[in-house]
Amino acid sequence: VQLVESGGGSVQAGGSLRLSCEASGDTISRYCMGWFRQAPGKEREGVAAFLPSDGSTYYAVSVKGRFAISQDNAKKMLYLQMNSLKPEDTAMYYCAVGRFSGQCGLRADFAHWGQGTQVTVS
Question: How many other CB atoms sit within 10 Å of the CB of residue 14?
């Protein structure tokens, strides 16, 4: 499985960005898909996750109501729409694929990771 993120950049506080993650194979339709972020000097944290089998979504408290995770199975794409961005959202953002089908959430076991895309909010 290969994951390639894009869509990061620099934006002013209050602005929006949409991150994209292109996935190889058919895992995007069967396994939990998630977005994570890591800021310098901080631990990686789960931002959002999506379980395709039932459409369940999971969000960190810090982003709920501002971020939205979605996917397009036909295009094998995962998205993260980020609105009302804050300086504390600045981080490297990664997409990931869950290890076990049916298991999902921000603390699920994720087996494959992309290289990340940088988001900077000033």
Answer: 10
